């Protein structure tokens, strides 16, 4: 969720650009649909495949690229040789059959028996195929269907006529990188919006909302919006809404400048390092020479004489009176040699071999540490995870509310929405999100039910252009930071909605000055 904030009842750019409504909201008419290059290519390809093949089409793309909008446009631009039915979620099999019969066969059923209704529907669909009319099911987010709904969809797509040919076609959509094995399909993707189409898309949405004139976005802002959104239409809508409010979610990263002094320092740093190495070599030259001479001496002492017998003869002829003097001389030379050998560093191979021997022979203390460490790892694995706030609430509700009561609450979600009295009782300096506004209050009801809004949800009606304007707000937050932090945790379709943050005093002022009863 982007950091969008405003203190006025409506975004200032709506009046400034003479817009009749938000330009970057949900596409609700054919005029709002942007038929870009890739979008038009996929739309025409889907229509061609529906006419020429009987294999269902699977449209896979990331969230926000326009899969749902494309399916809606197919249904709006229906042709004489095709009839579309939008698959409805969370309804009974009987209701699904009745909806299909009404949309595809333009007929109402007089029976409430599922088997009889299914046979009637097969008969009508087979008749449409004989008239060269293709009935098509449009199933959005097929991965979200429950197991019984998937089984019903599989059963419908397996219906065949007398010639053993499928009597139903389908266009299915789902998010990318999701496995789908329900039926055999032909796969299509939906690429992101190109940079060269970004400006045309934004201007199209503005003109659909009533704007007349050139694009209000400079070339640099177009480049920024295209790069930040990565061609995702939902993200582009939110960023463009921010831009019109005068808020930028991100700024360009500037390349750090290197001054002339830094360049000189880099130039001389290599020479300084080389000079330091030379000075160190000169300082320790004597010690290095001693290491070299000591290693040479050690090599000489390890060599055996060529003629051992000759050495034995020389030792045999030593005079007894000279033995003490020679022995002292040999001891002094041996001490010097040992001192030189002690200064020579131990090779890495010898130290590594010694460490490996120590590893191969662990001491009793090491074994004791390993034995004591095992219970700690076991305790960490067996430590239970603490449920989050939402899980705790669900657990508490399951303990106190019976299933029938939960169903009642779901059915009466609109009854839980607060009114103007509740809004006027909120602290004036607290914040709330305005989710939408509409001339039609039924659109507000549909929005609440579609997103399942509960909790601090309120609505009010005020005059705008001397007509009732229905507004929906959500949440009560003590500060702007708390509100923006909470909005970042919204999930699903709510995360892509253009919203703006308001203080309750501005909402209360709007109600007191222009508020009317709905």
UniProtKB/TrEMBL annotation:
Q: Pfam family of this protein, just one? A: AAA_22
SPOR domain location: 425-503
Write out the transmembrane intervals: none
Give me the ranges of the annotated region Disordered.
372-391
What the entry lists under Gene3D superfamilies is as follows: P-loop containing nucleotide triphosphate hydrolases (3.40.50.300), Sporulation related repeat (3.30.70.1070)
Q: Which PROSITE patterns match?
A: SPOR (PS51724)
Q: What is this protein called?
A: SPOR domain-containing protein
């Amino acid at each position: 969720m982007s950091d969008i904030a405003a203190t006025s009842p409506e975004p200032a750019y709506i009046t400034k650009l003479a817009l009749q409504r938000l330009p970057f909201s949900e596409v609700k008419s054919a005029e709002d649909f942007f038929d870009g290059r890739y979008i038009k290519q996929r739309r025409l390809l889907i229509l061609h495949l529906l006419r020429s093949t009987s294999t269902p089409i699977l449209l896979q793309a990331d969230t926000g690229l326009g899969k749902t909008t494309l399916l809606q446009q197919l249904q709006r631009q229906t042709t004489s040789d095709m009839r579309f039915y939008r698959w409805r979620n969370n309804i009974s099999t009987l209701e699904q059959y009745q909806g299909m019969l009404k949309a595809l066969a333009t007929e109402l059923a007089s029976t409430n028996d599922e088997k009889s209704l299914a046979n009637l529907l097969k008969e009508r669909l087979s008749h449409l195929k004989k008239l060269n009319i293709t009935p098509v099911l449009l199933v959005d987010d097929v991965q979200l269907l429950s197991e019984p709904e998937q089984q019903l969809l599989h059963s419908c797509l397996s219906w065949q006529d007398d010639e053993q040919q499928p009597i139903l076609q389908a266009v299915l959509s789902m998010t990318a990188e999701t496995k789908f094995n329900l039926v055999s399909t032909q796969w299509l993707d939906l690429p992101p919006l190109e940079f060269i189409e970004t400006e045309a898309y934004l201007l199209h949405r503005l003109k659909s909302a009533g704007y007349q004139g050139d694009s209000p976005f400079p070339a640099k802002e177009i480049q920024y919006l295209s790069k930040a959104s990565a061609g995702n239409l939902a993200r582009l809508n939110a960023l463009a809404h921010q831009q019109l409010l005068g808020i930028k979610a991100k700024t360009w990263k500037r390349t750090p400048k290197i001054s002339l002094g830094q360049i000189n320092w880099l130039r001389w740093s290599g020479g300084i390092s080389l000079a330091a190495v030379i000075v160190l070599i000169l300082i320790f030259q004597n010690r290095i020479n001693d290491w070299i001479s000591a290693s040479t001496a050690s090599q000489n002492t390890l060599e055996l004489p060529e003629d051992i017998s000759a050495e034995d003869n020389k030792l045999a002829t030593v005079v007894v009176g000279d033995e003490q003097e020679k022995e002292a001389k040999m001891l002094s030379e041996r001490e010097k040699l040992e001192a030189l050998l002690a200064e020579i560093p131990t090779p890495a191979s010898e130290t590594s071999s010694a460490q490996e021997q120590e590893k191969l022979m662990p001491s009793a203390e090491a074994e004791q540490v390993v034995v004591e460490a095992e219970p700690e790892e076991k305790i960490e694995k067996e430590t239970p995870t603490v449920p989050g706030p939402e899980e705790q609430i669900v657990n508490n509700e399951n303990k106190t509310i019976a299933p029938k009561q939960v169903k009642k609450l779901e059915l009466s979600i609109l009854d839980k929405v607060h009114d103007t009295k509740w809004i006027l009782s909120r602290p004036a300096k607290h914040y709330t999100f305005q989710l939408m506004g509409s001339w039609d209050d039924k659109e507000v009801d549909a929005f609440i039910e579609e997103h399942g809004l509960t909790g601090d949800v309120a609505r009010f009606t005020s005059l705008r252009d001397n007509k009732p304007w229905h507004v929906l707000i959500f949440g009560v937050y003590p500060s702007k930071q708390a509100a923006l932090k909470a909005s970042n945790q919204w999930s699903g379709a709510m995360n892509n909605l253009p919203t703006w943050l308001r203080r309750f005093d501005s909402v209360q002022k709007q109600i007191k000055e222009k508020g009317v009863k709905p």
